[in-house]
Specification:
heterodimer; A: about 250 residues; alpha+beta; Gyrase A, domain 2; Cyclophilin; 2 domains; 5-stranded mixed beta sheet; globular; B: about 350 residues; 9-stranded antiparallel beta sheet; about 30% strand; elongated; disordered C terminus
Chain lengths: ~250, ~350
């Protein structure tokens, strides 16, 4: 197991920090620890929030002291294996048509590739969902192939439509809702990544979870419109392709 | 007949809030809820609601609402406020009402809440609560995420907020005395988690400086103006979790204290974290207020949390009847024909 630190974030949260960078191996440790803590269902733990390189554990110190929680975490860390988490793999349709891909030509120019090459490269890898954050259901998927890695836009857009797919640094993100955005927009997915209400009447839910794998399947604008119409009716059902274990990731 | 409050004028930012929506942060869903949960609890206690029932959170300037129910019991807790009860929508002059009490309003009565004073937030609860479906276990309004509350947004003119009760219970009005809901001059913090991103001298300066609540503040975060804090190793960190009260230091060195509707993760170094016992007080600080941070240990923070819970437990003891005649509303027979029957509270009638 790699080195880690347990740091207080006030008196109701602890951060278990595995490193200071975006790294798939660190992420698998974060997710494995999250899984172990969640499965323990320890009184006083409110929730765990995995991020790229650390796990935040929210707790009630009047039920579980910081010291007791730290000791539990230290014992869980012993023998922690990256095969301790399971995720699903998803094939998400993405339309790279110029109607949606506001920055695709710009990305091609900046990377010295052609537009078809950018699309081909972007859709060539299996992405890992590191974490959800920023807005409900927004997944940080990485890593974008090195030749497509760009810093964020100098001037963020104030509003991009729901479904927009943006890249920046090593991350690829599909925005579940309208949002301000500093990423380079290269496509749009018709799949609702966050539902405020499911068809069964259950509450909000996110399609992707940390630890999932994602492959983008390029679609034409006609296919996009068909799928978007289904999504609007609530009849677009996307099922995970298969279960991915940590060891296979 | 449906019982509701009709919004004539919505106020600056009036939302339904409760104690928040914990448990979904790993999906990117904020906890949210009341900026000042102690004020919320006080308002609920004054109308006999469960402590965490949804109530209206008023920021800086309040709404004007018309009662469209046989009658309704309403309470006000938090900052001082210019609250007037008017006999109808055309009236301009009404009766001034103090906060920290309940009042019974009749059909057609107008409650007009003006500017708040001495704090940023006021809670307005109704007996029995608002008839709003919880989302993920909470009625808190998450505006950014578009989740929960009244149509997932702040009130607008014309809104008709449904009430659970069609009538107020038969009892005298209550007031709450001795609960301090004033904004603090000192806010206690625990250093970190990213103290290693700041030189020792900058951390010292953070604790020694006076900060002013900046005008860019909102329910998500409080922007602080004061001595800028320099970073030792740049200001972009790989995003990690944001705790309640996390104090982020962005590139310009002006700290941002994360409040109820904070995002779940963030990418600026966090110099310190406000202790849980001081979060309600932090949430009351209005724009322009001056205060300082004080470092404490985690043990001290936990002791303070126990004290806060003890203080919350005393809210009920501090509630007593409004003294008749000592109070404008009960000496206004022209407008109100109050039920003068007994001071006995019939609990079975108003606990829903």
């Amino acid at each position: 197991m790699s080195a880690y630190k347990v740091l207080p974030a006030g008196d109701t949260a602890l951060v278990v920090e595995f490193g200071d960078r975006v790294d798939r191996k660190l992420s698998t440790f974060v997710l494995a620890l999250a899984r172990r803590i969640d499965e323990m269902r320890l009184d006083g733990i409110i929730e765990t929030v995995p991020t790229f390189r650390s796990l935040m554990v929210h707790y009630d110190p009047l039920i579980l002291s910081a010291e007791a929680l730290t000791n539990r975490i230290i014992s869980l860390m012993e023998g922690l294996s990256t095969s301790d988490y399971r995720g699903h793999t998803w094939r998400l349709p993405v339309c790279y048509d110029s109607e949606f891909a506001l920055d695709l030509e710009d990305v091609a120019a900046r990377t010295g590739l052609t537009v078809p090459q950018v699309v081909e490269r972007h859709a060539s890898v299996t992405y890992h969902v590191y974490m959800l954050g920023f807005m409900p259901g927004l997944a940080y998927m990485g890593d974008v192939p090195a030749e497509l890695t760009l810093s964020r836009r100098e001037s963020p857009r104030l509003k991009i439509p729901a479904g927009s797919l943006g890249i920046g640094m090593a991350m690829s993100c599909i925005f579940p809702g309208e949002s301000p955005c500093g990423l380079h927009i290269i496509g749009r997915s018709p799949v609702p990544l966050f539902r405020h209400q499911t068809n069964s009447g259950a509450g909000p839910s996110a399609l992707l979870a940390p630890g999932d794998g994602v492959v983008y399947a390029p679609i034409s604008i006609r296919e996009y419109r068909e799928l978007a119409a289904k999504a609007a009716d609530g009849t677009l059902d996307i099922a995970p392709a298969d279960v991915l274990t940590g060891a296979a990731a | 007949m449906t019982a509701l409050l009709r919004v004539v004028q919505p106020g600056l930012l009036t939302t339904i809030q409760d104690l928040g929506r914990a448990g979904y942060q790993s999906l990117g869903i904020t906890v949210g809820g009341a900026l000042d949960p102690v004020g919320l609890r006080a308002a609920n206690a004054l109308v006999g609601n469960a402590a965490g029932a949804g109530a209206l959170e008023v920021l800086y300037f309040g709404p004007t609402m018309v009662v469209e129910a046989d009658d309704v019991r309403m309470s006000f807790a938090g900052a001082g406020a210019a609250i007037d009860i008017l006999p109808d929508e055309r009236a301009t002059v009404g009766m001034r009402l103090e906060t920290m009490r309940s009042v019974r309003l009749r059909r057609g009565d107008v409650v007009r809440i003006g500017s708040l004073s001495g704090g940023a937030v006021l809670y307005v609860a109704v007996e029995g609560g608002f008839r709003i479906e919880p989302v993920l276990g909470s009625v808190a309004t998450d505006i950014r995420g578009g989740i929960g509350g009244w149509q997932a947004r702040a009130l607008i003119a014309g809104d008709r907020l449904p009430l659970c009760r069609t009538q107020a219970s038969e009892r005298d009005e209550w007031r709450l005395e001795g609960l301090n809901l004033a904004p603090p001059s000192r806010v206690r913090v625990i250093a970190g988690p990213q103290t290693d991103y700041f030189a020792e001298s900058e951390i010292t300066a953070f604790f020694e400086s006076q900060y002013v609540v900046g005008s860019g503040s909102n329910r998500q975060g409080m922007r602080l103006e004061g001595r800028p804090i320099a970073h030792a190793r740049g200001y972009n960190i790989t995003s990690d979790g944001i705790a309640p009260g996390s104090i982020q230091v962005p590139g310009n060195g002006q700290p941002i204290a994360m409040l109820a509707e904070r995002q779940t993760t963030g990418g600026y170094p966090k110099i310190a974290t406000v202790i849980s016992a001081d979060l309600p007080a932090l949430g009351r600080l209005p724009i322009g207020a001056k205060f300082r941070f004080a470092p404490v240990t985690i043990e001290a923070a936990q002791a303070a949390r126990r004290e806060l819970f003890a203080e919350i437990a005393r809210i009920q003891e501090r509630i007593g009847p409004v003294v008749r005649g000592a109070d404008s509303i009960d000496v206004a027979p022209l407008l109100y024909d109050y039920n003068l029957i007994s001071g006995v509270v019939d609990a079975s009638n108003w606990v829903m």
